[in-house]
Amino acid sequence: MVQFKDIGNGFSVFLCLCQPKPQNAVTIAVSSRTLFNMVAERKIFVDEGVEKYVAFQVEHENDPLKPGPAFPFVKALMNVNTRLRNLYPDSEELFDIVLMTNNHAQVGVRLINSINHYGLTIERFCMTGGKSPIGYLKAYMTNLYLSKSADKVTEAIEEGIAAATVFMPKQENDLSDTQLRVAFDGDAVLFSDESEIIVKKHGLDTFFEHEKKFENQPLAQGPLKCFLEALGKLQRKFYAKNERLNCPIRTFLVTARSAASSGARVLKTLRSWGLEIDEALFLAGAPKGPLLQKIRPHIFFDDQMFHIEGANELGTISAHVPYGIGQNAPLKKTLEFSLRILQYVW
Amino acid sequence: MVKMSLDAVQVMSGQVKELKVSPSSNGDARGSWEGKEEFDPNQLELTAKPKPPKPENAVTVAVSSRVLFRTEREQKVFEQKGVEEYLRYQIEHENEPFAPGPAFPFVKALEAVNTRLRELYPQSEELFDIVLVTYNHAHVGIRLINTINHHNLFIERFCMTGGSSPIGYLKAWHTNLYLSADAEKVREALAEGIAAATMFMPEKLTEVSESQLRVAFDGDAVLFSDESERIFKTHGLDKFFEHEKENEDRLLDHGPLKGFLEALGKLQKKFYAKGQRLDCPIRTYLVTARSAASSGIRALKTLRAWGLEIDEALFLAGAPKGPMLEKIRPHIYFDDQMFHVEGAAEMGTVAAHVPYGIAQKYSSQQKMSSGK
């Protein structure tokens, strides 16, 4: 964070609260379109071309952009950082937010102005001017990458980086100012998609039998397991200072699995990884939307667009993890009937 | 790279034979989660499990872990030694199933009804759906799952809230009835408009039917509002009789459990439609302290106006409810007054307290004045 301290006689001193080193911090990379709402600007880019787009941005340099879908999430991360700094003033184990954008450097001024307008602490920028951000993500030791571009997210996941495509709901639920709440789907997000493969190929009953048989064998990990791990590590710092009841990070598992038939393997896997999850909801196929509406997470990760759209409809900010066998093309209303049949199976 | 440290629970758990603790691999390697071998489904013996219904179609009954199972010992560990010791204890005894709790026979009976409903209406989703809603931490989940499977229950939906209030989730599940051991939570649920009751474990349990679900209700402040009880408590019995006679044709307002009786009635009608009235696996009872001739008509007329049938109606005119209930042998009995709940429990009936209405104020006053 940059602060200017007035030392009188018209001089100011430039104070910099140091940013953590990437290897110590939990690094979250966000794209400009997830941090801010740039729908109108995007339209200009798509319809009228890059020159008009850049000109527009430069013209409106001093107009702050409106918040985008990842904005509440980033604000919540900063809040956790404040609490961490209170308890551990010398530690570098904090959240570090990097802005990773394809945008041209000219647009940078508007982005910086917007960031300062909202009082965000984002000191690290990568304006790649069109190049792929994947190399930079690795260099920053990124723990999570959020973008609007499904292609970039898919590339990131293939390179082993936790990533998701974020979607903005039409009306947003009120979210907590004091506690970061993150909800995860189970299969193909925290865990691998091995179980979903069995359901899709052999049906639900085979799946239940398989899960019972292999109850004590942990599932393989999925793309977002490491991010949950990073969250858990920070949570334990609060527990160590007796702040368990007041912990500003809360994690949720919201899975379509059935508890008695297939839940034990999930819980045992989490335990064998040494990961705790605060709340576990086994839905046995019930729709996720209403429960997420009660949970009010700052972000919800799922691998199936069906659930993402269901969550969005009821005001939850959702992020799609394009991994595993559950990938369908984004559904239109006319396809809803066939998707209901798919859900019947799963 | 950020290295993950083992926390105490994992070390203590003793369940972990080999630690699959892989360091964070972000960006280091291609996703290590690819490339699992195919498996052969013919190795497994398959038994078909029915699919759980959608919440809005089903009659959803939410139970807490403390009423479904007997967890007094674990509760003591939690209260005396704190949460970490409690979690450790649960993990240690993970493969020991809990003993059945007060709501256990009720849940078994609900499943018996479901089996009959599925036989008659194989495609319908109008069934009972049981959700386990508990304050418990996810670590305890495994013991709960093991116990559920040991007793052959069919509970697939869990809400493990890890300490935060479960009331918000009840609405999302379209809960028709919430049973808990904690009076505070039950009061909260009632305030949100959800039928709820606090359950107590009786010292001895009378045997109940395995093939027919029997539910008994008190009248005032349970099925009906507490307006009549107010008159009785402020002006006395005679005023109460007069008032009821005068207002015979005016319907009573509904009470917290009217919705649940309605849901039961809807399922009963499905059996009647298939000519199974004599063999219906759901039976409802009204067990009220009202006097039939002096104040009974208004109750019956109200039920009729609501389109609700009750199978058996017992007007006790003040006689103790315990002996009657012992004969009825319901799986659960709802009453708003602790006096009646305790009387029923003494004689072996599983009774649930509905903390609604004016009787709550009076009972706490009595307790204070008698120095209990």
From TrEMBL, chain A:
Give TM segment ranges. none
The record, for InterPro entries, names: 5-nucleotidase (IPR010394)
One Pfam family from the record: 5-nucleotidase
Q: Any idea what this protein is called?
A: 5'-nucleotidase, cytosolic IB b
* Gene Ontology molecular functions: 5'-nucleotidase activity; magnesium ion binding; nucleotide binding
State a GO cellular component annotated for this protein. Answer: cytosol
Q: Which organism is it from?
A: Poecilia reticulata
Query: According to the entry, what is the taxonomic lineage of the organism?
Result: Eukaryota, Metazoa, Chordata, Craniata, Vertebrata
Task: Please name the GO terms of the biological process aspect recorded for this protein, alphabetically.
Answer: adenosine metabolic process; nucleotide metabolic process
